[in-house]
Here is the input.
Amino acid sequence: QVQLQESGPGLLKPSQTLSLTCTVSGGSITTSYTAWNWIRLPPGKGLEWVGVIRYDGNAHYSPSLNGRTSISRDTSKNQFSLNLISVTPEDTAVYYCAREGDYGDFPSWGQGTQVTVSS
Here is the structure.
């Protein structure tokens, strides 16, 4: 069973860079055709897809974040990471990492980590 765990700082000031890491166990992030996502839940809003890095290292991002996002990976540690630059209070959310399933669903999620952007 694949398990995911987010880690990273919970409080940021505006203009700083958000950096989160997702550690995966029970499966490899390089297994063919797997995809590893970041999703966030802002307060009072619905889930928002942030981006994905696929088994081959290719990454794709939500255009709504205006090019502020990058996702990388460390295959030796079986981790993938999210960087979001120039954060604002609008980036306040619970951030989740999740494995994408074969049908575009998300069967495996981390527990989520609260990120608050405030001056």
Remarks:
- The longest strand covers residues 18-25.
- The chain has a mean pLDDT of 96.
- The two ends are 40 Å apart (CA to CA).
